[in-house]
Every structure is written in C-alpha cells, then in structure tokens.
Design goal:
Layout: H1 2-12, E1 17-18, E2 23-24, E3 36-42, E4 46-47, E5 52-60, E6 69-79, E7 83-84, E8 89-90, E9 93-94, E10 99-101, E11 111-113, E12 117-120, E13 129-138, E14 150-159, E15 166-172, E16 178-181, E17 189-191, E18 195-197, E19 201-205
Parallel strand pairs: 3-18, 4-19
Antiparallel strand pairs: 1-2, 3-5, 5-14, 6-13, 6-15, 6-16, 7-14, 8-9, 10-14, 11-13, 12-13, 15-19, 16-17
Length: 224
Amino acid sequence: MNRRFRFKQAVRRIKILPLMLSMIREVTVDNTSPAMRVEVTTDKEAYSPGEEVTVQVHLRDFAANDCGYSYFNFIVQYDSDVFSNLEYTRHSIYKEGSYTAGDEVNNRAGFNFQSPVDGSIYLGMNTSIRGIDIQVEADGGQHSIPAVNQTLVTFKLRVKEHTLASSSLISLANEFTRIRTSEAGNSFYLYSPDVTVSAPARVDITVSPSVSVFSARTPDNHLL
C-alpha cells in the first residue's frame, strides 16, 4: 500500500520542460492496482410506476494491506424523468429514516456521515440526470474508515407514477469520486482512476397492460 501511494506522489511531481526547438515530455503510466471497487445495487431488477426503490452503495475488493481511509465522497446518478425522491428529502437533503449509513461508518462519535444531498451534477447542460452526493469523514487521528467489504449507504428513490415501460440506470458518477487515505503523516486524495466501478444497476419499469371491458349488448327480444 505504501509503495503504491509513493508511486502516485512521484507521478504528480513530474514536470514538463519546454525546450527551444521542441518539448520533451516525461510520461509515466500509473499501472498500480485500484484501491477498491464500488458497486451500486437496487433491491429488485424491475419495478412498476409508483413503486419504491431501495438503492445501496457497496465498497469491495480493497487492496491488500490497505490502512483505511479518512474521507469518502461518491455521487450516485439517476434520471429524474424516471425517479423522484421528493418525499424522502427536505430542501434536497435526505431526511432521517430515508437513508441508513453502513455498519462500518454509523458510529456518530467516530464518523461524520453527512445526510446525502440531491442536486444537479452537470450544470448548464440540458439533462435530466441528477446526483446524490454521499460524504463521510472519519474523526481525524482517532478513527479510520476500514478497508473491508461494506455497504456504505442505503437510500430510497421512487419510480414516478406515470413512467412508461422502459429501462433506466442508477450508477456511480465516478468522475466526481474523491477519497482520502488515512496513512499517518502521508494522507492525500485519490480520484476516479483509483476506483474500479461495477456495471450500473439496470432498472426495468414494467407497466401492466390496461384491459378494456365492454358490456355485451343484449339484443332486443322480438315477439313472433
């Protein structure tokens, strides 16, 4: 673990030297193994309009001899044309009881697990994609988030009532990932290349076909 972080620090110190007739670039490829794998799952694969969706964020496959972390910041993205969380939030912040911190980080004395926040992540773009910002920070010098397989958070969404039959994805917006190591005297940030992302959670929306019932008209009886 220490060797991997020393390598990453060395990469950051590489300088590009301009020369009179050309530019020499020293390029170093970061081929160290990822720090962890992040997986986003839902409690079912298919839902009906109006049905509640339980979403979980899991951390798995940490590197060997990982010392743990002092800070995690992940954003889970979803399509707001398909899902809503208005009943679970107040001023875009998840209310108590609408989310649950994982067992490894639910100690309020040791960890500051912020209530997830819903917001736009692609500012200025014409998109319905929104992101749920998840942040947890360990008490400096006293605790660290352990590098063990864990469910980091569970939260709720709901399929909108009038959603048509379709499929949608709930996934990690990994370009916004930020994590911080907890190595004594050598703590620094890692970013999305240091995280392996599992396939997004595919959610199918199924709509029951409406059945029209026609009353058969009874023909008039005619007396012969």
